[in-house]
């Protein structure tokens, strides 16, 4: 395996998609407008960089434990980020959060 690459990252690239490093993602998001619109038209809070990283990993099909291991944080911290993501996007489950995150430009798969 290539140093610093997860199996999910390699599978994502093999499927014709792409993976962004957290540094590149941070640079891309640096100039973005912090407020977005929910599906109902109301504004919602922008995701933090860490929430965006967690959402990208959710989009990659990773579970809480794998996300925690890769980010060197606890499972409870992942759950906290996930809860915050759901609240900000108005999602009720992982798949909906990923779809809304893609729709609003937070993740690209």
Instruction: Give unreliable regions as ranges.
Output: none
* Number of β-strand runs: 2
The topology string of helices and strands comes to HHEEHHHH
Report the sheet with the most strands, covering strand number, pairing sense and barrel closure. Answer: 2 strands, antiparallel
Q: What would CATH call the homologous superfamily?
A: Winged helix-like DNA-binding domain superfamily/Winged helix DNA-binding domain
Strand order of the largest sheet: 1-2
The CATH top-level class label: Mainly Alpha
Q: Please estimate the helix content.
A: 55-70%
What number of structural domains do the residues give? 1
Count of separate DSSP helical elements: 6
Radius of gyration: 14 Å
Please name the CATH architecture.
Orthogonal Bundle
Silhouette: globular
What is the CATH topology descriptor? Arc Repressor Mutant, subunit A
Strand content: 5-15%
What do the pLDDT scores average to? Answer: 79
| Alpha-beta classification | mainly alpha
Q: Report, as a whole number of angstroms, the end-to-end distance.
A: 21 Å
What does this structure look like?
With 109 residues, the protein is mainly alpha-helical. The protein has a single domain (7-103), classed as Winged helix-like DNA-binding domain superfamily/Winged helix DNA-binding domain (Arc Repressor Mutant, subunit A, Orthogonal Bundle), CATH 1.10.10. Helices cover 55% and strands 6% of the residues. The chain has 6 helices and 2 strands. It has helices spanning 7-14, 22-29, 49-59, 64-71, 75-89, 94-103, and strands at residues 35-37, 43-45. Strands 1-2 form a two-stranded antiparallel sheet. Strand 1 (35-37) and strand 2 form a beta hairpin. Helix 4 (64-71) packs across helix 5. It is globular and about 30 Å long. The relative contact order is 0.15. The mean pLDDT is 79.
């Amino acid at each position: 395996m290539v140093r610093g690459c997860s199996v999910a990252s390699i599978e994502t690239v093999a499927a014709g998609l792409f993976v962004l490093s957290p540094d590149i993602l941070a640079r891309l998001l640096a100039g973005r407008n912090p407020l977005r619109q929910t599906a109902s038209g109301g504004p919602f809070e922008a995701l933090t960089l860490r929430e965006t990283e967690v959402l990208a990993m959710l989009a990659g099909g990773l579970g809480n434990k794998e996300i925690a291991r890769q980010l060197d944080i606890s499972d409870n911290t992942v759950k906290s980020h996930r809860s915050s993501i759901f609240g900000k996007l108005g999602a009720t489950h992982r798949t909906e959060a990923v779809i809304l995150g893609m729709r609003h430009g937070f993740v690209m798969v």
